[in-house]
């Protein structure tokens, strides 16, 4: 009996040690993972070391990213003449290598407003602010803010690098796909990854643009002393305007009283009824 058990044990040991006995093909494992989940499958066993190395390299690259600071500002300046102030602003913008992204002018009875959206290189932002504060006019308000987006930039960069790694693996899998179903599923995953990569790259470009070029909202404001454009500033013209406004007010009052003429017709009738009621009361 002991002689029989020993050969059987030897055969079992050989079968268990065979590395290819129960191993399934690599692509079948990945296809099953893709079909059963909507999320990305883990990388194949033989490329896991490569993927890990690439991810570590991406992490090291993002660790060296410089600080990403977005600067924004708002200024409101009261000026004597809009046109003159605008010429001064243009000279300052040109000197600081900036440009006007948006311009809007408003002319009302009370004031003139020129609103400018200015983009300026990050390094020239402070110099631009100081130039506008000196010589243009009276600064009514100023608000400067800084936003550190380094963490967001690093996070998006790492995820983008990992998505590119998975995209290459899917493209390799597509070359060896055996069935139409597998091809369609892999192509769908590739399409989704490409869309996500485009969004991530667009976000990084937007952050880089806001970091490299700061934004300043500049408003030039001129208050109008009088609403009349034809009369001159002075005591005589103001006196005439006052008389005109007084006469206009009197005419408006008179026209208002005239518009009440139906009520005036009722007054005699009301007085008649009141006197009649009063005399009847005395007789009683």
TrEMBL record:
Superkingdom per UniProt: Bacteria
Pfam families according to UniProt: DUF4349
The UniProt entry's coiled-coil ranges are 176-210
The DUF4349 domain, residue ranges: 67-275
UniProt xrefs under InterPro entries:
DUF4349
Q: Where are the transmembrane segments?
A: 250-274
Keywords in alphabetical order, please.
Coiled coil, Membrane, Transmembrane, Transmembrane helix
Put simply, this protein is called DUF4349 domain-containing protein
Organism encoding this protein: Chryseobacterium flavum
């Amino acid at each position: 009996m002991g002689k029989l058990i020993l050969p059987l044990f030897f055969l079992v040991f050989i079968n268990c040690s065979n590395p290819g006995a129960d191993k399934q093909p690599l692509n079948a494992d990945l296809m099953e993972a893709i079909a059963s989940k909507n999320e990305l499958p883990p990388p194949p066993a033989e490329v896991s070391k490569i993927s890990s190395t690439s991810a570590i390299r991406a992490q090291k690259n993002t660790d060296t990213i410089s600080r990403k600071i977005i600067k924004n500002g708002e200024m409101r300046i009261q000026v004597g003449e809009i046109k003159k102030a605008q010429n001064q602003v243009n000279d300052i913008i040109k000197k600081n290598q900036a440009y006007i992204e948006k311009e809007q002018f408003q002319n009302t009875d009370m004031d003139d407003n020129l609103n400018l959206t200015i983009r300026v290189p990050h390094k020239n932002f402070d110099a631009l602010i100081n130039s506008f504060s000196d010589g243009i006019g009276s600064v009514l308000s100023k608000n400067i803010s800084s936003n550190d987006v380094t963490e967001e930039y690093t996070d998006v960069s790492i995820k983008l690098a990992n998505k590119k790694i998975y995209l290459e693996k899917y493209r390799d899998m597509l070359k060896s796909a055996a069935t139409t179903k597998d091809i369609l599923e892999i192509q769908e995953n590739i399409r989704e990854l490409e869309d996500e990569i485009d969004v991530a790259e667009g976000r990084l470009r937007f952050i880089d643009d806001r970091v490299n070029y700061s934004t300043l909202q500049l408003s030039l404001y001129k208050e109008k002393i009088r609403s009349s454009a034809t009369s001159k500033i002075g005591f005589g013209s103001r006196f005439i305007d006052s008389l005109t406004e007084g006469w206009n007010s009197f005419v408006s009052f008179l026209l208002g009283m005239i518009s009440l003429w139906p009520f005036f017709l009722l007054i005699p009738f009301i007085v008649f009824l009141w006197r009649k009621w009063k005399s009847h009361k005395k007789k009683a």
